[in-house]
Amino acid sequence: MEELRLQRISTWAHLNLVGCILPWWCSEYIMDRENGGYYGVVTLEGERRPAEPKGLTLLGRMLYVFSAAYRKCRGQLYLDRAKYAYDELKTHFYDSEYGGAYTTVAADGTVLSDIKPNYCEAFFIMGLAEYYHATGEKEALEMCMEAFELMETKGKMAPGIYYATLCRDWTPKPGFDNGRNVSVKLPDDAVMYAHHLCQAYLRLYQATHDRRTADSLKDLIEFLLYKLYDEQNHSFMTLVTKDGKRFGHSQSYGHDCELSYLVINAADELEDEALRGKAYEVVKEVLGDIVDKAFDPNGCMYNGIDLVTGQTSPVHVWWAAAEAVSAMLCGYDLTGEEKYLTACERQIAFIDKWFVNRETGDWYNNILSDGTGGHVSDGQHGFDKLNLGKCPFHNGQMCLETMRRVESMLQKKGEV
């Protein structure tokens, strides 16, 4: 029965990826053939807005997903779309003078923002690493390693700690600015965990087995496990003050999920037994807390919680719901406790019933969950099907991660 449940989860992930998510993101409809790349905004109603700016985060994520889909599922269309995204990244975003990439460009490719937040540069590295892994394109690896070297030599404050934002020439810039009209003033001594950079370094290491990448990846994981783990609340702190205290009083269940299976995958990949032991110990605590108290009566995980008031929001965002699937499956893999598998199945059922957009494809961004079920709602990244923040990264990655983990679990059980 257990194997059958796992196989059903994997089959759902595969069908959702190739039948729902990727068909929309691979469609000609969203491609700006006149200027290159993709339209900056496509609304829920299907209106294309060609004058809107284009972002590095979106493009890097699309390059990653198309490349990863090609590696897993093959298919010429995925390779074609990966090459299309790569060509746009190289033509309009790559900074040939200073290395790395611009954050935002206008519809015609004119640079609008040349700052270099590690949040955005991470997807430049991640996309290129995965494209190289899928195609063997040496030029992609060269640009990727150049950005890695710059991040390590100019963007790094200490092991596992990076400046949140850098200028075009890689000198530090105060605060956090991700090029999406979101500029946050941070205390001078605040530390923001570079979790997307950690994801990028894992992909780069998997593609190259480069020793320096492994060392930096280990630093990032150790910093998270030993300095950013909140033992009282069983969660990871992604933004802390100089003395290591949580900045604010919000806990993000979505990030706890995303970081949990990332830590496990990285520790397993690095084959470091001490690191693996600590990772398994901490992640079991984090996911145990989530599975017991972070899901609403309809089976969908809350985005997060206010640690002072205990308040949660009934509006659920697509990316956190996707991360919950991967994390609960990871929890089941680590512990064998059925409650994780059940939580994973219930989250999938909620996604399939309420998040999946059966009219035009992909998922809705936000769903209000109440006593009557789910309802499309405003929330993070609004209603748009495509914008600087709405992309196929989280749900696409969830599908790929789910298929990978189920295959690994069944192999361990001798089923395949």
What is the C-alpha radius of gyration, as a whole number of Å?
A: 20 Å
Main pleated-sheet profile: 3 strands, antiparallel
Beta-strand segment tally: 18
Strand order of the largest sheet: 3-4-5
Order of helices and strands: HEEEHHEEHHEEEEEHHEEEEHHEEHHEEH
- In helices, the fraction of residues equals 40-55%
Name the overall outline.
Answer: globular
Poorly predicted runs are none
Count the DSSP helices: 12
Portion in beta strands:
5-15%
Which structural class fits the helix and strand makeup? Answer: mainly alpha
Tell me the distance between the termini. Answer: 15 Å
Please state the average pLDDT score.
95
Task: Spell out the key features of this protein.
3-stranded antiparallel beta sheet; 12 helices; 416 residues; mainly alpha
Provide the fold topology.
Layout: H1 2-25, E1 41-42, E2 48-49, E3 54-55, H2 56-73, H3 76-93, E4 104-105, E5 111-113, H4 118-135, H5 138-154, E6 156-158, E7 161-162, E8 176-177, E9 183-184, E10 191-192, H6 195-208, H7 211-227, E11 229-230, E12 235-236, E13 239-240, E14 250-252, H8 253-270, H9 273-293, E15 304-306, E16 315-317, H10 318-335, H11 338-355, E17 366-370, E18 373-376, H12 393-412
Antiparallel strand pairs: 1-2, 3-4, 4-5, 6-7, 8-9, 10-13, 11-12, 14-15, 16-17, 17-18
Helix pairs in contact: 1-12, 2-3, 2-4, 2-12, 3-4, 4-5, 4-6, 6-7, 6-8, 7-8, 7-9, 8-9, 8-10, 9-10, 10-11, 10-12
Please characterize this protein's 3D structure:
By secondary structure, this protein is mainly α. Helices cover 53% and strands 11% of the residues. It is built from twelve helices and 18 strands. It has helices at 2-25, 56-73, 76-93, 118-135, 138-154, 195-208, 211-227, 253-270, 273-293, 318-335, 338-355, 393-412; strands at residues 41-42, 48-49, 54-55, 104-105, 111-113, 156-158, 161-162, 176-177, 183-184, 191-192, 229-230, 235-236, 239-240, 250-252, 304-306, 315-317, 366-370, 373-376. The strands form eight sheets. A three-stranded antiparallel sheet has the order 3-4-5. The longest helix is centred in the first third of the chain and has 24 residues, at 2-25.
